[in-house]
Amino acid sequence: MSVTHDEVRRIARLAELDVGEEALPLLAEQMSRILEYVAQINAVPASEGVKPFVPGPDAVRFRPDDVRPAPLAFGPAELAPAFRDGFFLVPKLGQFEDAEA
N or C: which end of the chain has fewer CB within 10 A? Predict the structure, then answer.
């Protein structure tokens, strides 16, 4: 596949790059080679029996994603100044207002 100079200008404009006229032939050639390489890769038949390569030992390769709550070092009752029946006790907002106002 061959990339034209107009296509290079359009790609450069979309990428907001300032490409000079002298760089167009080189960029067009490089982009054409990249597209030819991708076409070669796409021509290789995909085999579903081949496992993808994942670095690392097989034992830790694909662990199940189990969502579990993180254990707390101590309960929320030890954090709160007032805690009853699983709820934090907070003062009412009216207690902070001026009685005369």
Answer: C
Cβ-based neighbour number of residue 79 at 10 Å: 10
φ and ψ at residue 87, rounded to 5 degrees: -125, 145
pTM attached to this predicted model: 0.45
Report if residue 29 sits inside a domain.
Answer: yes
pLDDT confidence of 97, banded at 50, 70, 90?
low
Domain of 18 in residue numbering reads as: 5-43
Q: What is the pLDDT of residues 66-90, one digit of tens each?
A: 888 888 888 888 888 888 888 988 8
Q: For residue 62, what is the DSSP state?
A: S
How far from the centroid of its chain's Cα atoms is residue 10's Cα? Answer: 28
Beta strands 83-84; 87-88: pairing state? antiparallel
Domain assignment present for residue 72? The answer is no
Q: CA 6 to CA 13: how far, in whole Å?
A: 10
Above 80 in pLDDT, residue 54?
A: no
